[in-house]
Amino acid sequence: MPIPLSGNIQTTPLPDILEELRKSKASGTLTIRNGNAVKSIFVKAGEIVFASSTDTNDRLGEILVKCRKLSKENLEHALQLSRKAAGLKKMGAILVENGFLTPKDLFNGLKIQVKDIIFSIFLWPQGEYQFEKHLPGDVIMLQLNIHVLITEIIQRIKQES
Q: What is the pLDDT of residues 6-60, one digit of tens each?
């Protein structure tokens, strides 16, 4: 039975939604809302390619500092440069262009960010979801295997409980 394009993750669990998107080779944006937090998972041909979040804990810079790939000082400097650029440049580009991060570390940091965002959604007790068959043009294509990702998330939940 196909999963509805919108609903609640209490009644339609996130793993079921992601598996349906994978099986149907869907492309688009799965948006999940819980209170003021909005998190989106971007899917292309059934594979997760990126994720975004309005939660400040999910920001790339914070994740890179937590992973010890970036110092707090360099993050602060990059944030100042970002404000001067008035949103015309993405944080990752600023970090690489200014030598705070290698392109490889940026790529690995983005993968960690995407996994952390999706992991955090798995911990939500409730949330409204909606899938739209639209993929923004500026999405970075990371290609994450849904089965591997869900397995990693289950292991992480077991470790943290």
A: 999 999 999 899 989 999 999 999 999 999 999 999 999 999 999 999 998 899 9
DSSP state of 133: S
CA atoms within 13 Å, Cβ hemisphere of 30:
32
Beta bridge partners of 120: none
Question: How many residues would you count in the chain?
Answer: 161
Mean pLDDT of the chain: 89
Query: ∠ CA(147), CA(64), CA(97), 5° rounding?
Result: 110
CA distances in angstroms from 156 to 58, 116, 153, 161, listed in the order given: 17, 10, 5, 9
| Structure token pair of residue 10 | 């209490």
Which of 23, 34, 18 has its CA nearest to residue 114?
18
Conformation bin of residue 14: beta by default, left when phi > 0, alpha when psi is -120 to 50 = alpha
How far apart CA 116 and CA 135 sit, in angstroms, is 21
